[in-house]
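Recall the central idea of this unit: under ordinary conditions, the amino acid sequence of a chain determines the structure it adopts. In this exercise we apply that idea directly, starting from the sequence alone.
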Amino acid sequence: PVLIAHRGFSSRHPEMTRAAYQAAIDWSSDTGIALGLECDVHFSADDELVCLHDLTLDRTSTSTGRAYQRTVAELKQLDFGSRRVLDPQPEQRELMTLRELMIMVRDARQDHVPVSLVVETKHPNDRGREVDERVAAMLTEFGWDHPGAPVRLLSFSVKAVKRFGWLLPGLERTLLIEDDLGRWRDGRLPDGVRVAGPDLALIKEDPEFVTRCRRRDHDVHVWTVNEPEDIRFCRDLGVAGFTTDFPDRVAAILAEDAH
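Accordingly, the structure predicted from this sequence is:
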């Protein structure tokens, strides 16, 4: 199964900080287990993509306001660690840019660590399709625009997922689904998309969705799967991908099954 570290190793460190991503890389290096490093991206005021789930700073930092109204230099001065950790280390406070995370993944892979990049673009945002276009340009710059590149692209936006199909037709895409399975209930997905990414709650409501997807040769990657009973529940349904704050816990339970 595909294992994805949700916002980095976010059970160990504040989400999407340098510490969270470094811990995920170190774990993958130590275990040899392939691990996707997931991030959400937005623009900063000075036109860089930064790794941050919310459009605002209030939940994850000790500051407030809209992230896209701050420059990268200003965002780097903020504390993204203290809401989670007493007396955080500098790397637990530090927000990452997408370019910095891409460099971390590239360098780790050059050291034969089996990590990959998992990028979610959020819609709606203040700059619309530009976020998808910038992600595509950066991936192309890194040479990660071809089949087999260590990248997966995600969005809840059908338009964004389709746009990535035009911009980067060789890359793997996942359509994220929350609130309601809606028009995807029968297991169909947009043309060229092979993976459905439903919220765990939707799979609990309708476990047969996994079977319906598999009948259409589609895989299901579920988020966010943290508790042992939920990991086993998804494993037994035939879920092909686990997005989790606890990659170590998921790997241990999947290893039980292998034995």
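The two ends are 15 Å apart (CA to CA).
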